[in-house]
Automatic annotation (TrEMBL):
Residue ranges occupied by any GSKIP domain in the UniProt entry: 66-169
Gene Ontology MF terms: kinase regulator activity; protein kinase A binding
Record family assignment: Belongs to the GSKIP family.
GO-annotated biological processes: regulation of canonical Wnt signaling pathway
SUPFAM superfamilies: Hypothetical protein c14orf129, hspc210
Gene Ontology CC terms: cytoplasm
Organism: Cylicocyclus nassatus (Nematode worm)
Domain of life: Eukaryota
Protein name: GSKIP domain-containing protein
Amino acid sequence: MRARMSSISLFADNAKMLKTEPIPCLRCGNIGSPSGSLPFSLHKVSSINRSFAGTNPGSRGDSSLELEAIAAVHELSFAVQSISVSEMLPRTPDLIFVNLTTIEEQPFCLELTHKGWRITSLRLDCMVGDFTRLELFTKYYDSLFSLMDTISPGYRARFGEKLALRLKMLENGDESGAAPCGSYASLPLSRDSSQCSFVSLPDVTPTNPAKFNAKITLKC
């Protein structure tokens, strides 16, 4: 009986220890965001990392490509079949690889450095591309949004629908119900995106949708 009471007490103490509490940032004192959300946007962290291209690694401070990769996985998941940071390829403060499969079921391995995003291969977890298509594997993109806009019509379709939904909600004064970055609140889109055309689709996610007045026309 004494041993049983001791184990119950130990379990209770462990439960208290395992209870997660908001941890304030040591630099700014802000409380961390709840699980499932990120305290930064992919567009913002991409801009910060691009500003460090060509600089001394020691001067980059707390800039992290891993933050940009995590933001990419979080914000692009609504418009791809799959996306994840590679667990097989090298991961350093100056180099990280992301595996991505588009809605069209085309796999890509992407390289992320302070210079930007680059396609390294049409296979997952692969750093060697097709040398007969150098233009595809040598171009750098400032953001993953612009890269996706180039390689995936399905991404453009879902991005356009999502943006139209957010603008409609903002017009109705329902800001709390607008789908946040990294989620998709409208009906599923068919993987056959060849029948859709788009007008005035931006290259990057607008940082302030309320001030974004572009008209989007979806013709399916």
